[in-house]
Amino acid sequence: MNSSKVWYITGASQGLGLTLVKRLLNDGYRVAATSRNAQSLKDAVGVIDTDRFLPLAVDLNNLDCIDESIRQTITAFGRIDVLVNNAGYGMAGTVEEIMEQDIRNIFDVNVLATINVTRSVLPVMRKQKNGFIINMSSVAGFVGAPGWSIYSATKAAVTAFSEVLALDIKEFGIKVTAVEPSGFRTGFLTQNSLAFTESKIEGYQAVKDTQERYLAANGKQPGDPDKAAEILIQLSENQEPPIHLYLGQDAYKRASEKLAAMTDELEAWKATTIGADFQDQN
């Protein structure tokens, strides 16, 4: 592995972002990492090595703040080889009961921040004529669960953005992967990472049952963050990384089942689908 590479990671003070930063620093990489509070990030990482670690206080809703963090990274390390758009949080509840401002807030963090950080990093990678962008999506962006419609919408947006971005920037030698994990023991279902609205409406039983099951599973998820971090590092060294990478057996199972169901549905409605075109006038 090329441990001289420079990584820029958002949302690094907890969860998978924190696990990844620690593993990279342990392996000798140079890392610029963002959080809302730089001191909290330093404390969480537990490593003060100004030669290889640059903790950055960044408001991901502020374009100038993002641009300044990129400038600081270039000043410190001279380049950015791998961008990991990791910042984000979950949202559970019914569409009827989640406040509009809360919906806007999660789109700002999960979607717009991913796009804006990418926009700021792309000129650097184009100049280098290489780079790798890892966008942390979720299997929920492809196969959602009851009560997670808003969160799933944000992650579907991240995945679609990644797919087309990969086409747009391929000519510059820049690669893109949307990483789509299932449940990992990262604290995702805790108060700091999940906006939860308990349904007060009669009915919505599928939503209520799913929420109860998910919350009960906190800390028992099958996904191992250390293994995920290792996979991301290996992925960064791959010359032909996938555009989609599902992580976890549950992610594989859910995605496989949906692909099969989509194929069956597509074929069942084929006549209707192609019947929407103009008929050949021969």
TrEMBL record:
Family matches, as Gene3D superfamilies: NAD(P)-binding Rossmann-like Domain
Keyword Cell inner membrane: no
Keywords recorded for this protein, A-Z: Oxidoreductase
Organism superkingdom: Bacteria
Signal peptide location: none
Record keyword Oxidoreductase present: yes
Family per record: Belongs to the short-chain dehydrogenases/reductases (SDR) family.
This protein's name: NAD(P)-dependent dehydrogenase (Short-subunit alcohol dehydrogenase family)
